[in-house]
Amino acid sequence: MPDHPHWDTDVRAIAVCVCAVLLILAAPVSHAAADRLGVVLMHGKRGYSGPKTLIGPLTAAIRDAGILVAAPEMPWSQKRFLDRTFDGIMAEIDAAVATLRTKGATRIVVGGHSIGGNLGLAYGARRDGLAGVLVIAPGHFPESHGFRKRFGSDVADAAAMISAGRGDQVTNFNDIQSGVSVPFAMRADIYLDFMDPDGPMTMPANAAALKPGTSLLLIIGEKDHTFRWGRGGRDYIYDHAPDHPKSAYVVVPGGHKATPRIGADAIVAWLLSL
User: Within 10 A of 97 (CB to CB), how many other CB atoms are there?
Assistant: First the structure.
């Protein structure tokens, strides 16, 4: 177990958060029998959404609970990386929501793992009528000091290209892969949408803009919660969201990649409570 001056506090926080989910479950649910929940569940950066992926077990658990789920391949997958602007991503999520509605979903939750949770939060800040937003081990922080220091020159180059009317031009821009900066060929306007520190993918701002009436589950592994930015996960993201009786901040054992699997029971419990 890693040493950390706040370890005992964090362990107590885990127990309190898990109990909070149980209390949510105990609350009465008054939805009509015809209501059915649908979930758009999005994978992490350079990931996928099949059965053997990081979100595969969670996708299966949601389906086994009788909840409709769509797990599309998103523009930040390994194969597609990165091929849509922010507005294009919002349109793809709209399409996934529409598909769930054609299958009978009357209430919708949108979210995902890592950057998938980031985009779920962004969607919830821009669309009315969602039952909830699900943020699992949140990732991608363009507004952070680390991102600004590492990618500031790339962001400035992309902005300059857009100002010159060359936003759709493809060139090499850097992103993090396995802890190092790696160049990827992509359009300038797409890169700026993903990396602008004042752009559409800053989670504190999107949490604050979450539409009233939308519940939020932010679930994070204790290794993310304890170290670096993560220990402020509650203050940094969750506490900015509007209050909702079904919202919860939950810490589970393990790290970033394991959270969708280890947190599956808590996630399903929260979904069933909506």
Answer: 20
